Amino acid sequence: MGLDSEKLKNRLSDLAVSLEKNIYVRAVRDSFLALAPVTYVSSFALVLKQILHLLSIETFDVWLDLAWRFGLGMIGLYVCIVLSYKIAKLRKEEPFSYIFLSVFGLFVFCVLPYMDLVSLSGRNLFFVICICILTDLLYSILKKVKERAYLPYFKETVIVFAYLILSYLLRKLPFSFDPILKFLDSGSDSLLFVILMTMFLHIVWFFGIHDSAFGGILAPIREGHLSINGLAMMQGSVLPYVFTTPFWVYFVILGGCGSLFSLVILLCFSKSESLRKAGRVGFIPCLFNITEPLMYSVPIVGNFHLFLPFVFVSVCNAIISYLCMSAGLIHKTYALLTWSLPSFAGAYLSTGDLKAGLLVIGLIVLDVLLWYPFFKTYENKLIKEEIYNKNEGERS
Fold first, then answer.
1. Alpha-carbon span 55 to 336, nearest angstrom
2. Is 24 exposed, middle or buried (0-12, 13-18, 19+ CB in 10 A)?
């Protein structure tokens, strides 16, 4: 088993390294990290609006609406600008051309055909990323063509015309890509997808590969869904998506990956001196969704005594929360104030539903019960080792 686990660890490490070296995955990940303040400010405005409405105060609605519309309401445009900039910097090219061409492509492909500024929200994040990548590919190809003095901005001119022609041809196609896109969109918000992603990210973290290594893949999905949910909330419509960033942070990984807040509660009362110390040191960080102190002090990384609960407790949280939201028992998420907000508070503020906070408290109790038998087995093992080491020390 050791050999098999070592092979799996090496393969997952190779995958993480490949993603880290991929210029587009790195650029997407860094772009969403850079735009996190936009998400937080916009979400705060939307939450504040809902709170003021409960108090029958509508005086600030216009300003709060503007704060959201110029934040998450235009996240597609911001991603286009920042992602183009990040790609250009990684390529060591002049960023202005990349930004101009990508934004031009965004308007040509996504905005002008519909004459709708809603297209600048998270609705078209997939296309935004594709446009930025296409801009880089075309620019790299045309860079090999020697630019003449009598034709300045040759590369930019060719790409502008290429986008105009391609946009025209796409509109003239006798078929539509909408069914395929709707299928992919529904798949990215399905329970199966949520379960598989939860399992995968926890397995790689168990082997010491931080889940942020895959942020460049999942961030566009979760942030795009969050933006659309926020727009639906602004319009008083039904929120369409379950799988968003606040759903992941506040409902699935309670206390961080592995749902370690429940484990840290058990650790604080452990009979093992080493586990008790780890719990008391890690309690406050875990309350704010920071798990690294526990991952390496318990340890959890590579510890097969704790593999099953580390992976599957969060899966249980995901299934229960997903079904509750899909059935309308609790509201879906529309705001992310900060990923480090304690889960029970974040659950309430991200949904405006008190039942969501109560659900999270219930999930923490369930998680404690799920973690308990594995924790006790590991604790008994450590107690025996501590007693043995103590006796050996006294003999010497």
1. 22
2. middle
Q: Which two tokens stand for residue 189?
A: 């918000």
Q: What is the b/e burial string over 128-154, where b = at least 16 CB atoms within 10 angstroms of the residue's CB? A: bbebbbbbbebbeebeeeeeeeeeeee
Identify the pLDDT of residue 1.
Answer: 46
Classify burial at 392, counting beta carbons within 10 Å of its beta carbon; exposed 0-12, middle 13-18, buried 19 or more. Answer: exposed
How far is the C-alpha of 225 from the C-alpha of 244, rounded, in Å? 6
Q: Which of 395, 384, 306, 317 is nearest to 356 (CA)?
A: 317
Q: Which of 200-204, 240-244, 271-275 has the highest mean pLDDT?
A: 240-244
Q: What is the pLDDT of residues 24-69, one digit of tens each?
A: 888 888 888 888 888 888 888 888 887 887 777 878 878 888 888 8
CA 44 to each of CA 39, 40, 71, 121, 352: distance values in angstroms, whole numbers, following the listed order: 8, 6, 11, 17, 12
**Tens of pLDDT, residues 121-168:** 777 788 888 999 999 999 888 887 765 544 667 888 889 999 989 888
For the chain, give me the number of helices (H) and strands (E)? Answer: 18, 0
pTM assigned to the model: 0.82
